[in-house]
Predict the 3D structure of the following.
Amino acid sequence: MKICPITKRGSLRAGGYSNRTRATQFNPTGIVRRQLNLQKKRIYIPELKKTLTLTLSTKGLKTIHKRGAYVTLKEAGLI
């Protein structure tokens, strides 16, 4: 599934068509699925002396850099 285990966010349904586009193209609702920016990363946890491979969103990566890998992953329930 395309869900970040740290931020618990998934894809969004979003619009964003102008009225001119709606009038000229066949897309009556203009609803688009916006996916997360997921990255596969290897993260080393010095407290456990282990490396984990996770698929995280870029916002989750920023959280790990800011708060530390061990604290963030423990809070998310991945350790």
